[in-house]
């Protein structure tokens, strides 16, 4: 028996020494960020402004990835659960002079991978390899790191015993448990079991700020006589309060410039101006001077709006009476100027082609214009999505061929929206949810399917919670629970 123990001890010591050598080349936190620079350029949400669905997916996945990387750097943190991530990765351009310029803005692909590594170096390599990005720069980073410092840190890490140790002692092998966890698909109840407690803590912590946000929003809306105050991105409650405080200070300092905003919707976003939907956009990175200029220019925007409406009407006449609309939830956030240029370009193209549509033959149908697509499509809500670069002959054939289906979809849209609202209200009441909502990228059909299946479940964990229907599992910084619409039971 003692002989066996000596063999096990020798094997374990050899394993530990080998681990120390490997871990002596582990990346630091700063090195990891630098090593992932090509990855961040490929997936950063700011490069997906024309693609709201893909942008939302990448924002969500980056939050979860950053949490995973932070946990890896916490001393004594042992509980690593496999984390499945999906990113939309921009395609690389063949001829490029820099990392940032090497990615295209027109093409991207979906990449999914599962992280289960326990050190930064392995994690970084897994991410880059999964996205088919170069790892050549990693070698120089790890060689240039401080071996003695990292080796000392490695000795403080948990001991990784040889397999014979677990078979001899009967203890559980953490690697085997990790493999088993990977093979087991995440279910809604199991995920809620693991995350409900942390969500409750975050939610309770955010309650005072939530009340403050509602107070500020109500006071500013009443004072400025606004239709609404919104946010383009899912910023945290503290961030939103800060933005409202900033607007409140401007109201006190320059009340005269804000008289033009009466009746408008204010949207906090990444740039200032007026949106294609006619909302006043306030860039969160801009100072009061920029906001003031936007408020002063509002009368000029009204004139541009009139010209834009005229263009929409002219396009409608050329296309048999089909209505040109802008759907804020489904289209990229465009400024009024950008949307006007898009309409103007499309209108001139139609004038040159002179499509033979019978007047008012398509009355009652709707279409939206998009500059980043190449083929026309029909949405589940009944409107056509038309690329600005679409060949006129192809456009005419597609609209005529799909006109009847579009009319049927438009009829179902009202029914679907009513059904969706009823199911949201019923689900929120059954589970005593404080709030039930969905991300813009989740369709009505997906939301309806999700709510119907939720109502068949018994989920006491959800009482008093904020539940967001999304594409992935996550707990937001203010305690909102996010679950995928197609969750597994």
Automatic annotation (TrEMBL):
Record domain DUF4461: where? 186-488
PANTHER family from the xrefs? T-CELL ACTIVATION INHIBITOR, MITOCHONDRIAL
Q: This chain belongs to which protein, by name?
A: T cell activation inhibitor, mitochondrial
Q: Which residues form the DUF4460 domain?
A: 23-133
Whose protein is this, by species?
Phasianus colchicus (Common pheasant)
> What Gene Ontology terms describe where this protein resides (cellular component)?
mitochondrion
Domain of life (superkingdom): Eukaryota
The family database entries (Pfam families) matched by this protein are listed as: DUF4460, DUF4461
């Amino acid at each position: 028996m003692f002989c066996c123990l000596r063999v096990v001890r020798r094997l374990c010591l050899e394993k530990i020494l080998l681990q120390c050598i490997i871990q002596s080349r582990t990346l630091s936190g700063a090195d990891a960020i630098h090593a992932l620079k090509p990855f961040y350029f490929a997936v950063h949400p700011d490069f997906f402004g024309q693609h709201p669905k893909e942008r939302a997916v990448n924002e969500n996945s980056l939050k979860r990835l950053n949490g995973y990387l932070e946990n890896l750097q916490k001393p004594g943190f042992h509980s690593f659960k496999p984390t499945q991530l999906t990113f939309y990765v921009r395609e690389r351009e063949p001829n490029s002079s820099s990392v940032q310029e090497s990615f295209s803005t027109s093409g991207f692909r979906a990449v999914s991978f599962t992280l289960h590594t326990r050190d930064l170096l392995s994690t970084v390599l897994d991410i880059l390899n999964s996205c088919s990005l170069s790892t050549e720069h990693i070698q120089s980073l790890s060689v240039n790191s401080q071996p003695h410092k990292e080796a000392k840190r490695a000795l403080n890490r948990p001991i990784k015993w040889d397999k014979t140790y677990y078979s001899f002692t009967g203890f559980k092998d953490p690697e085997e448990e990790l493999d088993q966890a990977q093979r087991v698909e995440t279910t809604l109840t199991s995920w809620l079991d693991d995350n409900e407690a942390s969500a409750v803590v975050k939610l309770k912590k955010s309650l005072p700020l939530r009340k403050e946000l509602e107070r500020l929003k109500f006071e500013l809306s009443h004072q400025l006589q606004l239709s609404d105050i919104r946010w383009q991105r899912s910023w945290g409650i503290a961030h939103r309060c800060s933005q409202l405080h900033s607007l409140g200070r401007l109201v006190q300092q320059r009340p005269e410039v804000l008289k033009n905003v009466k009746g408008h919707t204010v949207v906090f976003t990444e740039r200032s101006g007026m949106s294609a939907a006619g909302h006043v956009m306030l860039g969160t990175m801009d100072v009061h001077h920029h906001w003031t200029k936007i408020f002063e220019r509002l009368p000029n925007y009204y004139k541009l709006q009139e010209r834009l409406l005229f263009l929409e009407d002219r396009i409608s006449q050329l296309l048999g009476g089909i209505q040109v609309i802008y759907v804020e939830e489904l289209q990229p956030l465009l400024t009024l100027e950008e949307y006007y240029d898009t309409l103007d370009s499309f209108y001139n193209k139609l004038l040159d082609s002179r499509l033979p549509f019978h007047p008012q033959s398509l009355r009652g149908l709707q279409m939206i214009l998009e500059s980043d697509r190449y083929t026309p499509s029909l949405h589940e809500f009944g409107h056509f999505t038309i690329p600005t670069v679409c060949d006129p002959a192809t456009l005419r054939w597609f609209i005529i061929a799909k006109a009847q289906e579009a009319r049927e979809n438009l009829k179902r849209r009202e029914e679907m929206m009513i059904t969706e609202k009823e199911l949201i209200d019923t689900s929120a009441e059954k589970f005593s949810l404080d709030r039930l909502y969905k991300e813009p990228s989740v369709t009505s059909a997906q939301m309806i399917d999700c709510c119907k299946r939720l109502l068949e479940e018994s989920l006491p964990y959800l009482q008093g919670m904020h539940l967001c229907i999304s594409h992935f599992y996550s707990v937001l910084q203010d305690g909102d629970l996010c679950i995928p619409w197609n969750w597994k039971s």
